[in-house]
Structures are given as structure tokens and as C-alpha cells.
Design goal:
The protein is α/β, with parallel strands linked by helices. The chain contains six helices and eleven strands. This is N-formylglutamate amidohydrolase.
Length: 261
Amino acid sequence: MLKSTELLGGSDPDPVMLGREGGRSPFLLACDHAGNAIPARLGTLGLGEADREDHIAIDIGIFSTSHWLAHRLDAPLIGQAYSRLVIDCNRRPGTMTSMPKVSDGRIVPGNADISEEERRQRVAEIFSPYHTALAQLIAVRTSFLGMPPILCAMHSFTRVYGGRTRDCDIGVIHGEETEIASRLIHRLKTFGDLRVGYNVPYEIDFAGDHTIPAHAVEGRIPYIEIEICQDLIATCAGQRKLAFMFEAAFGDVEAALARSG
């Protein structure tokens, strides 16, 4: 059990990673599961290196892909540096998956017996700074653009989960189908044999998820959530390829919105 009132020390990274805050694009890219850092005071959470580098700890490939895309679009990018096993910044604090004891069948020993003080620390020092920074970035972008940005929650998913194979490559996710979602799906389907679907492999959990419900739905700003299969973006070449595809798809959306508005 931690004795201090602070979780993060001088050797730990800042939870918030920011880039291109002054970009011209109407899109704002957010990566809730960008990193897999663990505060030094928590050691390894009792996990081996293979687990700490695996999908249970990080959305593999998504931050690099989003970084390429942000560069191509000239769009702001925000990422969260700490592992989703320390605290999942896309889950409401207090839910079972916020600080999971088990992930994809693997026990997380460091989360087995977390005190209320430890939970408070993780929320106060990692979760809250990230979401405060995202809220501030949305406000700054709204002022800069003269309208709210389009919040793009960027995620990746593993091909096999819970012993079951997923047969989609890219998911375009929204609470209800919109022009943004429809245009993205249509454009992405023009690229070869990619299997693109609506609300796959997930739907937004409006009761348990945090980023889209808290920032977009409650804030009444346009949004989209993107899920990319990790085997497509496990390499630098794959990350660049998908970023270029999304650049074209997002460009179609921006052009359509400009014509209609």
C-alpha cells in the first residue's frame, strides 16, 4: 500500500502528450490508450514484459498511426501516456474495468487489492489531468475554429480476443449513424479489401465509457470513434499506410461539411 499522498514521482512521465495544438484541421485526435507507462512506485503491476507490451496494456500501434495522421491533416493530437491497466482513461472511475483485476483472462496482480487512497491517486494524477487537458484543448479549438472541433477517439483492437477471431479490419463507431460515419465508411471501403463496418467490434458504452460520452455527447460536439485492427498497424509501414487512408477519408468528410455549412 502506498504511504505518500503522491503516486507520480520525478522519473515518471507526464500523463498528457500533446502535439499540433495550433493545427488548422477541424479534427481533434485523442488516444486514450496511447502509452503503456507504469508509475515507478507501482513496479510492473506484477506483470511480465510480454504482458506489459501486449494489447491488455496498450492500444498497439494507434498513437504512431495517429501521429502520422495528425501530421498529414495538420490536426491537434492528445494522448495518454500510462497503461490502461494502471487506470483506463476511457472508463468511468468506479467501474469494474477502470482498474481491472483481470484483462483478457490474465490476472493483474498489482490491481488485486487497491485501497481507496490508491484509487484516488490514480484518478487524481493520471485520469483527471488527461481529461482536463482534453477539455481545455476542445475549448481552445472551438475558439480558434469558430465552431467545435470533430473529436476523433482513436483506438486499436486485437484480432483475437477471448479466444474468438474478429473478422473486421476497421470499425467506424457512433451512437447513431451520421453523415460523418457514413462518409468515412464509404471512403474507407474504396481501399482494397479492407473489411470496414459500423459499430464493430464495439459499440460505445454510454454508461461505462468516458471520453465520447463526457466530452462529445455532454458537450454537444461532433465526434467519431475509430477502431483499427492491430495487425494492420503493428509496423511503421502499416501505420503510415493507414494514416494516408484516413487522411483521404477525413478529407472527404471535411469537404462535405464545408459544402453543407
